[in-house]
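Subgroup meeting minutes
Present: P.N., E.W., G.H.
Scribe: E.W.

1. P.N. recapped why we're keeping a running log of single-chain structure predictions: easier to compare across weeks, and new members can see raw inputs and outputs side by side.
2. G.H. added today's entry (299 aa).
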Amino acid sequence: MVIKILRAFKEGFQGVKRHRSMSFSSASAVTMTLLIVSVFIILSMNVQQIVTSVEGSVQIHVKIDIGTTTDEIAIMQKEIEAIEGVKTVTFSSKDSELEAFIEAYGEQGDLFKMYVGDKNPLRDAFLIETVNGEYIESVAAQISQIANIEKVNYGGVNTLVLLDSMESIRTGSYIVMGVLALLAILLIANTIDTTINARWEEIFIMRTVGASNGFIRWPYIIEGMVIGILGSLIPIIASVVGYIYLYKLLNGYLFTHLFALVPIYPFTLKLALILLVTGVVVGMIGSFISVTRKLWWRR
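Output recorded in log:
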């Protein structure tokens, strides 16, 4: 068994070496496809990061009516926590609300320090975080029905549109990556098929002397794996170096700190591994499909 495996690897590597031009053509197909796949992986992972960041930053802000007692506030908090989709509920006193208001306006916020104390016009509030963006609208609607609630605010339709748009981009990128992977398999299968056509005579001889399909097939599969590895080297280097450069150029975020990019490490290591594994798998499947076309008849 070990000898058969070693033989398959030996002939696979020799096949790549003997047929350099066709191997280069196949590896080039892998390279071009993986470069495109890499772009969509980077895009989808960063969109996912941004969606998570936006969802985490979008809170439902609930103002409590003036005169609501401490006991009533405690009961209200329990009612809100019981709503499906609510992740956390944090009580924020009107003093805390004023402090946050002053801090948000920076130096200009000093103008509002005159309202600290009894002159504070703000309301006590709840800050609510949902499990994900899908629950924001329904949770806000249910909270508005609770007694002693003055106002519920979460950003409205614009926030929901933003989250839906990002989710659509993320889903679309996954679909594109799947289509590209399928195209890569077909491209490689057709390219390797040309190579196998040129070597059909040696396959025919092996079949004539009684070689099994597995005996014939495995060296070609190993050859496809090697081609996949070779084809993934340039995409790996280009993607890792390119992402590091882009990340540093943008200081780790897109337009605003809310749209933070995925940190360089360990993302680039995962990206390199994904591209390498994809290259190997695509090469194997492409070779398998191609050689199986020639071994269609039953023994």
